[in-house]
């Protein structure tokens, strides 16, 4: 019934700080760019925000126990940079202890999009100095937790943060810079490179990054469409992986766009290209692109709209099935992108799927006390098969983490989009494992028996 995974394959679940912690002003924590963004009317569906989120800050012990009871080996979470900056390292001490006491391996991400507002005020990721500030922050965390945390993820989805937050204005910090946002991407990559160095100096065992990747196909074979799709994929896939895995940007246009003088760029790229112990891949859906056709309405195809005047436009991917978030369900896209990564990067480190999952608008627990989410089970099952296919095709994949352990604040979409294996009642904040949670538990048990 279930695909077989190699011995030692690790199952996990993922979350991120802003999406679950809440406690927005507790323990000296200052605002992050997401606190600022969500406070602005019209930015998030239903005017919601992560000030309380699911109050994980106060409920972490029972949350971790519930996650562990599913039988997963790894738990991926992220640190809130403004919380650490405010001096509240005690929370992460207790959290990491609880993760370890429950027999889980902590795999934290340093940066999952919640930049301290004071750093945004100083230019945010458009300012090169932010990369050095991230290195200081990495060092603070490694000094405090390095005796217990051995495996680290530097950055989450630098492509999405750059595109939605800096090129467009759909996520914090809503800069809307268009292609002028490329320096924000470069500075995050530099931050990644600096953090790898810092973490290794402090004795880290495993260091990786979590990158979102997806196949981009051209709507037709016309030269214009193919060129548009290539440019889009360069900007959203390869700009954030070629420097890490090949040591250079995918094109001259992008090299020039990041705005760093040549000699310095070469030094930066050397740092960014440092060997990694694992490469995290987040996968949700593929994208189809065409060259913009005059007068055609492209709104609503992607979760965010690409403004007029850009040289590419997204068109709906052909797929019979969609999640309740509207994302196309294409499991073969995961196999395809893994095989593509392996071909493109001969030195690709072992891959961990650091995020994969689906939002369905689950009904609350019924009279039987259960949350029946068979569509999520089907989604996860099909994507695990896709991972297994990639392994058969020669890609080394060492683990798979579901996004997400628990329902949470889904950025600009607020609380409507439920990705969790654990259901949360957003009124009383009670937790109920969904059927998918029990399914995952069984799957992990069955793997262990084999
Ligand atoms: C990814 C993000 C994660 C979550 C999922 C659904 O892009 O990394 O925080 O929002 O999408």
Supply database-style keywords.
polysaccharide degradation; globular; 450 residues; glycosidase; Glyco_hydro_1_AS; binds beta-D-fucopyranose; nine-stranded parallel sheet; three-stranded mixed sheet; cellulose degradation; hydrolase; TIM Barrel
Describe the structure.
The protein contains 16 helices and 14 strands. With 450 residues, it is an alpha/beta fold. The chain has one domain (10-448): TIM Barrel, CATH 3.20.20. It has a nine-stranded parallel sheet with strand order 3-2-1-12-11-8-6-5-4. The chain has a three-stranded mixed sheet with strand order 7-9-10, covered by helices on one side. The mean pLDDT is 97. Beta-D-fucopyranose binds at residues 16, 19, 156-157, 160, 212, 282, 355, 403, 410-411, 419.
Summarize the structure.
The protein contains 16 helices and 14 strands. It has helices at 17-20, 33-39, 56-69, 81-85, 89-101, 117-121, 129-145, 158-167, 182-201, 223-236, 242-245, 252-257, 262-272, 332-344, 374-392, 435-449, and strands at 10-14, 74-76, 105-106, 109-111, 151-156, 206-212, 216-218, 278-282, 287-290, 313-315, 351-355, 397-403, 422-424, 431-433.
């Amino acid at each position: 019934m279930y695909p077989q995974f190699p011995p030692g394959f690790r199952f996990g679940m993922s979350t991120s700080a802003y999406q679950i912690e809440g406690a927005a002003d507790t323990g000296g924590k200052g605002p992050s760019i997401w606190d600022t963004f969500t406070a602005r009317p019209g930015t998030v569906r239903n005017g919601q925000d992560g000030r309380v989120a699911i109050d994980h800050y106060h409920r972490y012990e029972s949350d971790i126990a519930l996650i562990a009871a599913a039988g997963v080996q790894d738990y991926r979470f992220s640190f809130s940079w403004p919380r650490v900056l405010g001096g509240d390292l005690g929370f992460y001490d207790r959290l990491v202890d609880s993760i370890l006491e429950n027999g889980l391996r902590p795999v934290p991400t340093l940066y999952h999009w919640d930049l301290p507002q004071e750093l945004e005020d100083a230019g945010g990721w458009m300012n090169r100095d932010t990369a050095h500030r991230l290195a200081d922050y990495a060092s603070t965390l490694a000094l405090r937790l390095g005796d217990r945390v051995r495996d680290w993820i530097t950055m989450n989805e630098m492509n999405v943060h750059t595109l939605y937050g800096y090129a467009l204005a759909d996520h914090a910090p809503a800069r809307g810079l268009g292609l002028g946002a490329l320096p924000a991407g470069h500075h995050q990559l530099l931050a990644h490179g600096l953090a790898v160095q810092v973490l290794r100096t402090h004795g880290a065992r495993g260091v990786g990054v979590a990158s979102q990747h997806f196949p981009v196909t051209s709507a037709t074979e016309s030269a214009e469409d193919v060129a548009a799709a290539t440019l889009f994929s360069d900007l959203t896939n390869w700009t954030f992986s070629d420097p890490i895995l090949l040591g250079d940007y995918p094109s001259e246009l992008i090299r020039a766009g990041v705005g760093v003088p040549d000699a310095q760029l070469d030094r930066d790229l050397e740092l960014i290209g440092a060997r990694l112990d694992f490469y995290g891949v987040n996968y949700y859906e593929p994208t189809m692109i065409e060259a913009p056709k005059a007068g055609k309405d492209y709104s609503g195809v992607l979760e965010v709209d690409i403004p007029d005047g850009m040289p590419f436009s997204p068109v709906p991917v052909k797929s019979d099935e969609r999640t309740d978030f509207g994302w196309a369900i294409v499991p073969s896209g995961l196999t395809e992108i893994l095989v593509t990564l392996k071909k493109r990067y001969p030195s690709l480190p072992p891959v961990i799927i650091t995020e994969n999952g689906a939002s369905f608008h689950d009904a609350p627990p019924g009279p039987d006390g259960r949350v029946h989410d068979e569509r999520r089970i089907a989604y996860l099952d099909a994507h695990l098969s896709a991972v297994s296919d990639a392994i058969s095709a020669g890609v080394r994949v060492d683990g798979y983490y579901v996004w997400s352990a628990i329902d949470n604040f889904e950025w600009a979409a607020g609380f409507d989009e439920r990705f969790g294996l654990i259901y949360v009642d957003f009124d009383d904040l009670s937790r109920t494992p969904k059927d998918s949670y029990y399914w995952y538990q069984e799957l992990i048990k069955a793997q262990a028996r084999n």
